[in-house]
Amino acid sequence: MSNIPENVPPFLAALYQGDRKLYDLVMKNMGDLTPQGGVILHKYRLLMSMVADGVLFHPHGVTALAKQAREAGASDEEVNEAMRIIYLSGGMVALINSLGAYEK
């Protein structure tokens, strides 16, 4: 998909190209629901989202969120613990689909 700005999440690229009005609404809602100054530290919100994506079999989301969590200050040990939660919650298939979390 060409002509997509870098700040467009990869999982929303098709929506960005197909319906900019809906894309803008989704992005506004995501921003409203995930404020940067929330009570839960940003790295932990990213790790929780990573676990959710892992259990729901969204491997690209796991990979992206693990990277973002590390950039937000999460340690490899914290990512590893999140991966253990994915395994305990979703089983082997969820774990296998989430191995992208180890890409750096």
Global structural class? mainly alpha
Rg over CA atoms:
14 Å
Say how many strands there are.
0
Mean pLDDT: 91
Strand content: under 5%
The assembly state of the depicted protein chains is single chain
Helix content: 55-70%
Q: What is the domain total for the residues?
A: 2
User: How does the major sheet shape up?
Assistant: none
Q: Number of DSSP helices?
A: 5
Envelope shape: globular
What does this entry show, briefly?
By secondary structure, the chain is mainly alpha-helical. The chain contains five helices and no strands.
Report on the structure:
There is one protein chain. Helices cover 66% and strands 0% of the residues. With 104 residues, the chain is an all-alpha fold. The protein has 2 domains: 30 residues, no CATH class; 61 residues, no CATH class. α3 packs antiparallel against α4 and α3 packs parallel to α5. The longest helix has 22 residues. The two termini are 24 Å apart. The model has no long low-confidence stretch (mean pLDDT 91).
Produce the secondary structure layout.
Layout: H1 13-18, H2 20-33, H3 42-55, H4 59-71, H5 76-97
Helix pairs in contact: 3-4, 3-5
